[in-house]
Amino acid sequence: MNLETLQLYCDVVRLRSISRGAAANTVSQSAASQAIQQLEAELDAALLDRSRRPLMPTEQGRAFYEACRALLQGFEKARADLAASRERVEGTVRVAAIYSVGLHDMSRHMQPFMSAYPQARVRLECLHPHKVVEAVIEDEADVGILSYPTASRSISVLPLRSEPMVLVAHPSHRLARRRSVAPSELQGEKFVAFDRDLPIRRAIDRALKQQEVAVEVVMEFDNVETIKQAIGINSGVSILPRPTVLKESEMRTLAVMPLGLPNLVRPVGIIHRRGRRLTPVVARFIEQLQQPADAAPGGPAGMSRP
Amino acid sequence: MNLETLQLYCDVVRLRSISRGAAANTVSQSAASQAIQQLEAELDAALLDRSRRPLMPTEQGRAFYEACRALLQGFEKARADLAASRERVEGTVRVAAIYSVGLHDMSRHMQPFMSAYPQARVRLECLHPHKVVEAVIEDEADVGILSYPTASRSISVLPLRSEPMVLVAHPSHRLARRRSVAPSELQGEKFVAFDRDLPIRRAIDRALKQQEVAVEVVMEFDNVETIKQAIGINSGVSILPRPTVLKESEMRTLAVMPLGLPNLVRPVGIIHRRGRRLTPVVARFIEQLQQPADAAPGGPAGMSRP
DNA sequence: AACATGACATTAGAGTTGCTAATAGTGGTA
DNA sequence: TACCACTATTAGCAACTCTAATGTCATGTT
Fold first, then answer.
1. Looking at beta carbons, which residues of chain B come within 8 Å of A3?
2. C-alpha distance from B108 to closest chain A C-alpha (Å)
3. Entry pTM
4. CB contact under 8 A, B82 and A52
């Protein structure tokens, strides 16, 4: 039972003729005749009264015709809805990012991206790190942006940048005026740390242990913003990615000092579902994210002079 | 695009599995896989996310699933309605009869017919003779009962009986007391006739002319009932089929006398559309009509004693 | 981390279906 | 009655759809 046959039947009834119905569907009269007969056989009902000219549907045939029209109309609507949905879905980039990179990175890339893809839609969600991974795995986000990304069977990673880690202290702290601080100077220092289950915490712990420095962890938080607030009330010092304290450094609300630990960085990366073909819009969005921070807006055909 | 594929797709979504969907539709997993792929190709949309287990419909796939369910439900309803309509139509006999045979003949045949086909429905319409033919030609009636039936390309005739024609007069008429009347005695008589375009009029005219009798036509009507009324007010005599004046004869409201014209009869017959296969119910109804008037009710297995 | 498992995709070949062209049959009409 | 227009039928060919076998992949386990 196929929809083309139902369409043919509707045309036959509407045009009062099998031949005209056949022509309307660009098939031979024979094919139309056979198709209608088969339809009647499948339904076990006489739909057309062929013993009169012009052809007329029987009472049942007329009822079935009305039903068919509704059916075909419904199908065409479903098809149209599908196409519209596809337009929308394929033009949307769903981004899941951790708080500390979300808005900052987005604001830098949004304008060039939107001018390249004017009808694209970007949806950004800021989440806890493991929620970012979850969102990508569950196909609730097309791309995830997070620190310490780890590839897995279902997740691919594209490295984005490595953020140097710096010592952050209250402006009144004894080390606040220093140009730089050696790791050993943190021995016994009150320390505001990340939660133990975060990769950044493990990276910092490992680096300090390697330097044989022990700090006194006085607080633990799961995000940068709260740690900064704790330092702001002089609860202790911390080690944070430099970009996350850029504004506070400029405003002198927090003191920011390099540490002599070049290997201690926070890698930031993009993740997406492995093996899943990216839509053109998503691929282009990722390319945009990979542009360095100082790239001229407008792409490679920039305004460099000879 | 066929409905079985849509059904398959719905089952696949519902069961979260192509193999289970295939099983539900008693086809191989391969066939189901190909069918779904073809569906996606025809719609140019990714309906299923196969990169996860268990299988999940995409956002578009879910919307299409809902639409499909409604569509299939609508089709099943149409199919069911069709079956119900067929039951009803095939169990119905539409009868068109002229006034003078309609109710009288029906009442005699209805009871045995209905006991043989308890769920059958009989619809009787009493019409003018040419409307009876028209109704049968236009397929508004399955059978027609009328006098002087004529076969044609689209009409078949089954003779039913020949009704003897009798002289009918007012009880006070000079011929009213006669046992029988010779045609010649009608010479110059005031006569209430049928309309000129009716076959019965032509038959009567022909018979009188053959006897070289000329009557004075004072009125013309298109039906028996009105002629009887005219005679009732002593407007003249008429020649009518005997069965149509049976009641008046018994009640002595009209005088009924045989005429010596054995060839002058009104043939009554059944007509139906030629070449049109009769439904069993219609065929059985015709058989019932052809039973003689004195047949025992209850059919051939009657209550005759040894 | 390799392996086992269950599920989907792919492929090739067999069987069926559906189409076209030609022809026969039928209702309406001059 | 013959003709016209339309539908049914037939036969043969092309296209499609199905199945069985095999390949590939995602997931859970040891």
1. 1-3
2. 30
3. 0.77
4. no
Question: Which 8-state DSSP code applies to residue B181?
Answer: B
> Parallel, antiparallel, or unpaired: how do β-strands B255-258 and A255-258 relate?
unpaired
Give the C-alpha separation, B261 to A162, whole Å: 124
What angle do the packed helices A99-116 and A280-290 form, to 10 degrees? 120
The residue lying closest to nucleotide C18, measuring its CA against C1', is: A31
Q: What is the pLDDT of residues A98-146, one digit of tens each?
A: 887 867 778 778 888 888 888 888 888 888 888 888 888 888 889 999 9
Residue whose CA is minimally distant from C10 C1': B30
Q: Within an 8 Å CB–CB cutoff, is residue A76 touching chain B?
A: no
**Rounded distance between C-alpha atoms, residue B290 and residue B294, angstroms:** 11
pLDDT of B275: 67
Per-residue CA distances from A168 to A173, A195, A206, B176 (Å): 10, 17, 18, 136
CA distance A38 to A61: 14
Element (H, E) at B272: strand B265-273
Per the CB < 8 Å rule, is A1 touching B1? no
Closest residue on chain A to B43 (Cα):
A79
Interchain pair A82, B2: CB under 8 A = no
Identify the pLDDT of residue B74: 95
Report how far residue B194's alpha carbon sits from residue B18's, in angstroms, rounded to the nearest whole number: 77
| Residue A38 Cβ under 7 A from any strand C atom | yes
Q: What count of CB pairs under 8 Å joins A to B?
A: 88
Strand ranges inside chain A, DSSP E = 48-49, 56-57, 92-98, 121-127, 143-147, 155-169, 190-194, 216-221, 238-241, 255-258, 265-273
Average pLDDT, whole number, for chain A? 87
